[in-house]
Every structure is written in C-alpha cells, then in structure tokens.
Design brief:
Helix content: 25-40%
Shape: elongated
Number of helices: 12
Number of strands: 22
Largest sheet: 8 strands, mixed
Strand content: 15-25%
C-alpha cells in the first residue's frame, strides 16, 4: 500500500525529541502490522492526520485492545495511545493521566471498547499536579552579534522575554575562548545595600551575612524531579553521571538517583554524562563558573550570563569539553538591582529569574533542536542561587509602595 512506505521509512518528518530510534521504528512496524491485519482502511486516516498535524479532522485509527490494555514493544509495555502519542507528538509524555481524548473520538482508551484509537491527534495534553510545566524558549531568526557590545537597556532586555521569537543556540566553540579563572580578591567587608532616602532620614544600610550554602541543586528527568534537592556549600562542586556515594559535599553523582519510570532514552543519556560539569563558586567575588568535564556537551541557560553578553534572555549556550563559562556575576546583578529598584516592585521581582540557572546534559534544547523547552531534555539540573534571592528579598521587603531610589550597592 502506498502509505506503508511513508509510515515505515519517512520517520525523519515525524520524529520528535529523544525517543529511541530503534524503539520508535519497532513501534511503527508493530502498528503497521496490526493495521494491515485488522484495519487497513485506517492507514489513510493515519497518514492524513500525520501529514496535516491535526489541522484537519480525521477518523479514529484503531487496533485491538489486549487483555491488560497494554502493548509490548521490545520488552517495554505501555498503553497503545500513550506509545503513539509519544512517538508522533510528545516524546516527554509520561503516562495516560496526561492525555484527554477529544470529543469526536469514538474509540478512545477510556471508552473501554474492544478497539482502541491510537490517532495521536485524537488526544490533547493536560497538566497534572506535581509535574513541572515546560519552560518555553521563544523563536529567534537573527544571527548572534559578531562582537558583544555593552548590555542593552535592562527594561528593553526584560521586555524581550514576552516576545514570540526564539534565539539561536550559541556554541562555546564559536563564541568563547577557553577561560582562565579570575584572581580571587581579598575578602571584602560584609556586603550591604544602601538606599537613598530623604536627607532628613539619612541612609539605611542593609547588611547581608554570607550564607553557608550558596545554592540548591535539583535534578530532573524530562518534566519530573528525581531524588532530593541538594544544598551545596563547597566552593567546587562536580555533578557527574557516576555512582560515587561520597558525602563530602563536593560531588553530586546522578547515577545514585533512582526513577522507576525512567525510559531507555533517559538511561542512554545518563550513560553519556560521564565526568559531567564542575561548578566553581568564587565566594568573595560572587561569581559562578561552569566547566564541562564530560566528552558530551552541556547546555546552559543563565539569564545573568545572557544579559552580560547581550544575548536574548532565554539563549541556551552549548559548552563543550574543557571549556568554562561565567554563568553568574554578582557585581552585575547588584547593579541591575539598583536600576530595577528605581523602577519599582515588579521590575525588581523580575530579577528572580536571574537567580535560576538551568543546565542539561548531552541533549540540548532551543531553536536548533527538536526539543523546544528544557523539560523535554532527558537529564538536567536547576540551580537556585541563594545570595541573589536574599538580596532581592531584602530590597523588596524595604521597598515602600512607591518606587524608592537607591544610590549604590557596595
């Protein structure tokens, strides 16, 4: 039949995300055999649905329901409609709880009939409690600047977050030379923010004692957090893919994190994490560096880094082996806090995003990839920096109803 060649060999145009190629092809072959045996008429409906991506109404595409309702593909058992929605539409789909049939679907899984509709465009995706929503990266078609100029106006830069364009992914090979760590200065006095109040009141200093833990790191597989959150205090922390049970605080081995719902695609990615990434926190300087130790690249989204380099706020930078990147600069953050405090509460609160850094291993996301958001990557971490949040909280706490000018942050 003419559709067989399209559905069997044309997977380049339907393939999404990180679903394992071999497993996906076996799933397609299995579907073809069942349709040819039980429902050849549905081949045309499936072909049309895939070609127009659901833009036009299509009929149900059904296969027989097994005794337990599940379908086995290469030692993996799952519900049929989940399998083909994962293959054709959502590679990060976890379970049938995230799917809801459209009203016109007569043989949806929930109907309990002897036939099950596996038309991926007869189902819509719904949010469920406890699952992290996707962080979308807007589209962008302009090439990155050849030379980085001064950072743009913060107000205009923050407004870019609301655009519908997606930035190009940036490669450390093309943008950065291998960096040397800056010399650590002498420990300064306690950091403080000073507000410019009316002359009668004088200046109010708000001191910030250094916190023992400088960050909290969470590990995710697709859109689900796996394992406990880790609070780090060591100035150098390595996140790798091994199973080192060491508890000295300077290493996080992702191989120790267990997930009963882990797919073969995620397992394959975890095996390539290897030596991972080293985070170096220069405490007295307030800067954070990330160095790729793995043979596979790491992908980093840091709004603070993007602002300092005049990139779009949501740019994702690719970091290859032995390259390092300054992913947070406290000095620049405190300068931005001054500017935002003059603009009011909302502008200051927007800086919260600058204290969060997202980093994926092996697989990237963004305009150059099929994965459009970080929650579609198999293995990634989210780093919450404590000090910037503390400073921001202090500013917001002392901020009156109307914008308060700030003279300096020392």
């Amino acid at each position: 039949m003419k559709f067989e060649g399209i559905l069997r060999t044309g997977h380049a145009w339907w393939k999404q995300g990180d679903e394992d190629d071999t497993w996906s092809k076996k799933a397609i072959d299995n579907l073809m055999k069942k349709l040819q045996k039980h429902n050849r008429e549905s081949l045309a409906s499936l072909d049309m649905a895939l070609k127009n991506a659901g833009r036009l109404p299509s009929d149900c595409v059904t296969i027989p329901r097994s005794l337990d309702g599940r379908l086995q593909i290469s030692h993996r058992k799952a519900l049929p409609h989940v399998i083909y929605c994962r293959v054709y539409r959502w590679p990060d789909l976890q379970s049938h709880h995230e799917l809801k049939a459209i009203e016109s679907c007569r043989f949806c899984f929930e109907s309990g009939q002897k036939e099950i509709c596996i038309n991926p465009y007869h189902y819509i995706r719904v949010e469920i409690a406890g699952v992290l929503p996707p962080v979308l990266v807007p589209r962008f078609t302009d090439p990155p600047p050849k030379e980085n100029g001064p950072p743009p106006s913060l107000k205009k830069w923050q407004e870019l977050d609301s655009t519908t364009q997606m930035p190009l992914n940036l490669d450390s090979n093309a943008i950065y030379r291998q960096q040397q760590m800056q010399q650590i200065p002498h420990k300064p006095d306690a950091m403080e923010i000073q507000y410019s109040l009316p002359a009668v009141l004088g200046t109010v200093p708000v001191p910030y004692p250094e916190a023992e833990h400088w960050a909290t790191i969470s590990y995710y597989e697709l859109n689900t957090r796996v394992g406990p959150q880790v609070r780090v205090s060591a100035n150098e922390v390595i996140i790798d893919g091994f199973t080192d049970p060491s508890t000295n605080g300077s290493k996080i081995s992702l191989g120790l994190f267990q997930n009963v719902n882990r797919s073969p695609s995620i397992e394959s990615t975890r095996r390539h994490i290897g030596n991972g990434v080293k985070l170096t926190y220069v405490r007295h300087q307030g800067t954070l560096f990330a160095e790729c130790l793995s043979d596979a690249a790491v992908f980093i989204q840091s709004r603070n880094c993007n602002y300092n380099n005049s990139f779009h706020p949501t740019t994702v930078c690719k970091l290859v082996n032995k390259f390092s990147l300054k992913v947070f600069d406290t000095t620049n953050f405190r300068q931005l806090l001054v500017e935002c405090a003059q603009r009011g509460f909302d502008a200051s609160y927007d800086l919260t995003n600058m204290s969060i850094i997202r980093m994926s291993f092996v697989k990237g996301w963004g305009a150059e990839y099929q994965r459009q958001d970080v929650t579609s990557t198999p293995c990634w971490v989210e780093i919450h920096l404590h000090a910037p949040l503390q400073w921001l909280d202090q500013v917001l706490t002392h901020m009156p109803a109307s914008p308060m000018p700030i003279s300096s942050i020392s």
